[in-house]
Every structure is written in C-alpha cells, then in structure tokens.
Design goal:
By secondary structure, this protein is α/β, with parallel strands linked by helices. 27% of the residues lie in helices and 29% in strands. The two termini are 20 Å apart.
Length: 171
C-alpha cells in the first residue's frame, strides 16, 4: 500500500513521458555507443522495454553489433535477417523493441537513409539520434527524436525533448 502511494505521488510530481529511461541505463548506453563507434564511425542499437498506458519504458540496450557483428562499417549496415536474435531475446525477457538509437558524426537530423529505412517499420516506433558519435552524455534536449508514422513519414519530436523523453533516476 505504501509503495502504491509513493508511486502515485512520484507520478504526480514527475509525470511519465512517452519514452522513459533510467538515467544510469541511458548513460551506460551512451558509453557503449561511444566505445563501439571509437570516435569515427556510427554505432547504435535497440532499446528494449515495455509498452503500457501510452508510455514506453526502456529496460535494456542491445547493440546492433551484438546481433550483427558486421553492422558497424562507418555507417550502419544492419542485416535484417538477423532480427530473429532480437525477437528471441524479447520473448525470453518479456520485452519489446520500443526504440532504436544510433549516432551521427555531426548533428541530430535524420539522413535520407534513416528516413527511408526505419529499423522497426511500425507506426509509433521511436528513433533516437545522438550527435558527435556520443562523445559525451547527451540528454533528450540534445538529441534527435523521431516518431515513425508509416510510409516513410516521421514526426520530428526533437524540439519536445524532455517533454517527450524522460531520463531520470527511476523510470
């Protein structure tokens, strides 16, 4: 009972956003992106978690190159035939792919390749772009946030930043 009251009070003070992630997990994800990109190539991965009540909660990060060891070539060339590994992990852990994240050498805008090739071509899927090969700890106001609408159309949520994506001590 006390836990339920505390959760309600916390959600009143810090309402959940569309996308939510524990701060420690987000910082670990950025560190892995930085390490795997080595400061000169794009890196990325899937953010796994749970959907519920109109919000997405990140619980794990699965790097692209853990699924497809040949995916980081400078740009990201991910072999979609290897997605069975992703779906198996999701089934095993009761999770879903709720977002993807990848780095760019400069800014946070989507490339034409990003727009034309969503990692998960499902309406509502969220793609995050971290600038400068994740050279530091970027927060939601500093990254690209794009929501897929189907048929190669996206809504740019980047300006909504922290109103759309919350990175907190708790998710």
């Amino acid at each position: 009972m006390a836990f339920s009251i505390l959760r309600t009070m916390r959600e009143l003070a810090f309402p959940p956003r569309h996308l939510n992630c524990r701060r420690s997990l987000w910082l670990d994800t950025l560190s892995l992106l930085r390490e795997r990109g080595r400061g000169h190539r794009e890196s990325g991965g899937f953010l796994l978690g749970r959907l519920g009540g109109g919000k997405r909660t990140v619980e794990a990060f699965l790097p692209y190159d853990d699924v497809d060891p040949n995916s980081l070539t400078g740009a990201i060339l991910f072999d979609g035939s290897k997605m069975d590994t992703v779906w198996e992990r999701c089934r095993r852990e009761g999770l879903e792919v709720i977002s993807d994240v990848h780095t760019h050498p400069g800014g946070v805008g989507q490339s034409q390749t990003d727009r034309d090739n969503p990692m998960i071509p499902e309406v509502g899927h969220v793609a995050l772009i971290v600038p400068n090969f994740a050279d530091r700890a970027y927060l939601p106001g500093d990254i690209g946030i794009y929501e897929y609408q189907g048929r190669r159309r996206w809504i740019d949520r980047s300006r909504d930043g922290a109103r759309y994506f919350a990175v907190r001590r708790f998710a």
